[in-house]
Amino acid sequence: MGDLLTDKGSEIGEMIRIHAILRAQAAPEYTEEQWPSSIQVQSKHNTPIEGFWLWVRKGEGHNLRNVLEEGRDRGIFNGSDDLHVCVFNWIWPPLVQHRLDGFCEYWNHHRIRKQQNKTLPAGTSPNQLWISPESAVATAKNCSIRVDMELVKALREELGGEEGRDEALQFVTREFEEEAQTAYTNLQTPAVDLTNVWHIFTLLVAEIQQLRTET
């Protein structure tokens, strides 16, 4: 089994390359032949992550999807309107990320029920196992491998450094980012959640339209 198990998407090639470089530098005793640094399989065969989606959907997925589709079903969002698309891309990604971060925090702290015949540790949280594996099983060992942070820094610089990272995570242009932030400030920066996101979306669209008529 490889250190990194993924599907066969073409978008993760750079991640696989970097993972192989870091593993080779930090743990040269593990050869690619015996212990591949990564393995790509079809999504249907990647059972850990595919099975996990059920819990994501139960915890967040259906809720998010219902609210997302509400904007379309109620005629609030028009996908053929460039302004609507830009406002959507400005307001929704941070909200979705916040909800997923919250689910991740919950899941990593939830207690795994005890099972006598279970091979893997149980009776504690994933975070506790990560921090102190021996707290769950006396004979457990911390097998983490430390990587060279200077190498990590060099690899990041190859990809454009902080500027490249910011660009990759930018869902709208910098010009629109400034425009939307001005409109949001004019609305007195209301907190955005699933109960009011489409209301604030409508207010932002109207405010940006007003700002554009004034310039």
TrEMBL record:
Pfam family, one: rva_4
InterPro entries: Integrase_dom_put
UniProt domain Integrase core: residue ranges: 33-132
Listed PANTHER family: CLR5 DOMAIN-CONTAINING PROTEIN-RELATED, EXPRESSED PROTEIN
Protein name listed in UniProt: Integrase core domain-containing protein
Native source organism of the sequence: Antrodiella citrinella
Phylogenetic classification of the source organism: Eukaryota, Fungi, Dikarya, Basidiomycota, Agaricomycotina
